[in-house]
Amino acid sequence: MYGGKQVAKGDTIFLFASENQGGPGLIASGIVTSVQPTAKMKGIARQAPRVSITVKCTALAKRQLGRSELKGFSNWNDGRPETELNFKLYRQATNKIIGISDEATAFLHKLF
After folding, report:
1. Tally of CA atoms within 13 A in the half-sphere of 51 that contains its CB
2. Which parts of the chain register pLDDT below 50?
3. Which residues contact 66 (CB under 8 A, 6 or more apart)?
């Protein structure tokens, strides 16, 4: 979803603890150390590509960034990195790996 299936070893990643499962949102950044495709589940017609990744943590977030901080950024065409993150992370409440723009990456780096 949103480019997540292209994740590769060596990629920088930002980790968000799922707020739907009690997590606070952005918690850390890291480097992907391994990627393994996950087999599709039998009996389900439409499935997003799935991968299992291993990540080495490189930094902990110093500022909170979650659904409540991004909620106001809902003008999907304004080009802001906050809006991109709100759209890709919170439009559908599922756990996911997403690809983000250089602008969103630069924005997230400021939170560490």
Report:
1. 18
2. none
3. 16, 19, 24, 25, 26
* 8 A C-beta contact, residue 61 and residue 112: yes
Q: Quote the pLDDT of residue 91.
A: 84
Give the pTM.
0.84
Please report, in angstroms and rounded to a whole number, the separation of the first and last CA atoms in the chain. Answer: 26
Q: So what's the pLDDT on residue 12? A: 95
Q: What is the pLDDT of residue 1?
A: 52
Q: By 3-state DSSP, what share of the chain in percent is helix, strand and coil, each rounded to 5?
A: 25, 30, 45
Question: How confident is the model at residue 28, as a pLDDT?
Answer: 97
Tell which phi-psi region holds residue 104, choosing left (phi > 0), alpha (psi between -120 and 50) or beta.
alpha
Residue 77: DSSP 8-state: T
Measured in degrees and rounded to the nearest 5, phi and psi for residue 71 equal: -55, -40
With contact defined as beta carbons under 8 Å apart, do 89 and 98 qualify? yes
